[in-house]
Amino acid sequence: MTSNESIISFKKVSFGYVESRPLLDEVDFSVHRGTKTTIMGQNGAGKSTIFKLITKEIRPEDGVVNIVNNLSIAISRQVIPQEELDLTVREFFEKAMSRQAKEKIYNIDPKIDEILEAVNFKAPHDKIMRSFSGGQQARLLLASALIQAPDLLLLDEPTNNLDKAGIEHLTKFLIDYDKTCIVISHDADFLNSFTDGVLYLDVFTKKIEQYRGNYFDVREQITARQEKENRKNAQLKKEIIENKEKANFFAKKGGNLRFVAKKMREKAKDAETRVVELKREDKSIRPFIIPSQKDIKGEIVKISGFKVIKNNKVIQKKANIELRRNEHLLLKGPNGIGKSTLLESIAKNEATEIKITPNVNIGYYRQDFSTLDFNETAYKSLSKLAKKQSEAEMRKIAANFLITGDIINSKIGDLSEGQKGLLSFARLVLQEPGLLILDEPTNHMNFRHINVIAEALNKYDGAMIIVSHVSDFVDKIRIDKYLDLED
Questions:
Q1: pTM for this prediction
Q2: HEC secondary structure over 90-115
Q3: Distance in angstroms (rounded) separating the CA atoms of residues 137 and 145
Q4: To the nearest whole number, what is the mean pLDDT of the chain?
Q5: Which of these, 40, 76, 214, 232, has the minimum number of CB atoms within 10 Å of its CB?
Q6: What φ, ψ does residue 116 adopt, rounded to 5°?
Q7: Which range, 154-168, 195-209, 257-271, 349-363, is most confident?
Q8: pLDDT at residue number 221
Q9: How far apart are CA 232 and CA 37, in angstroms?
Q10: How far apart are CA 99 and CA 92, in angstroms?
Q11: CB-count exposure of residue 148 (10 Å: 0-12, 13-18, 19+)
């Protein structure tokens, strides 16, 4: 049940000055108890920064973040931090609970089982975190926040890696959830099922606009406002031009008409002050093509067998799938069955029952971005692959994926998850793979980018193997063959 009590308020909050330009510029908004709020905004606009300011992981450089006394806050992060991947499930939850508990935690195992049941998952408590699939890790991240029983739950891209059943379960949980929740996500249907307000973070103005209503209502409000402002500005610009032309005409006549010319200039100036700063749409990446390796012919990949995981047991299965140039394969199956493990074994050419033609250039998009060196700059990461492209061509490709300005010279570890994804696609363009392997490539992506990515993959003319639980995205890509690991 919602109330009028404001539990969080940002007052003129600014953060992240780079060469005098802030990431957030005098941001104002408030969140009331019991509401379910979405944060919208482009990749890298500062959505996750808002969460860090709320949890006091970082402090504002200007302004004030007010949080009511004794408000407990828990966050379900996008990914498990590298330093926690080698923890057991028990250690992972002990660390999560220690953030709220003021005394030693005893008999935690029943609490873990209870909270895992809430996210529809079972896991051995002594199993290492990195051994779980991306979808299983997403459930564990959510459970680690819920076990803290917070007054405010922060969810950062909670549907990433979740299969259809996982998303449905999470959706029902949030609809029934009776505490305050703020969610960052690019999944429109998911957000619309429970959102009652939106914080829109404008990447151009660096400010937040607060809206009431569900997700689709807010998108319509923003679009309607843009159209209204465009019409108003078009009329004002027409008026400005007409008055300036009249002013020039009367000024040339001289005499008393100079006074009329002065009046026309004043009218033009007044109209200029009434031109509103338009809310520009979030930038979308440019249409692109992933060039394929040209010196390969015939069979590129042959899959005669593979392993799956069911009930914590490894099961060997047979298959008979060949992939040639311009053939696309979709791997299907629920979270935890072994899709990502199979993709990795193919990418590393380690699977005994999967043969890859020698000298095939493999482009591998991992959902956790572990193929990237987080200590490198984006520029260095791209330049290593730019063997055929000039400096100018490489920078143009990077710019097409919004990797420009300060971003290209930033360490990869400092980029948002969405920016890491865009960098990964830029690398694939430079790499020109003969075999393209993609593991959940829409995770963290702004919805404006997804159709562009789908079109590029649809046109890719090498061999491609893809895993994605986003059916609308997959429907836009030509799929020639299927391999369901559950069959």
A1: 0.67
A2: HHHHHHHHHCCCCCCCCCCHHHHHHH
A3: 13
A4: 87
A5: 232
A6: -70, -30
A7: 349-363
A8: 78
A9: 31
A10: 12
A11: buried
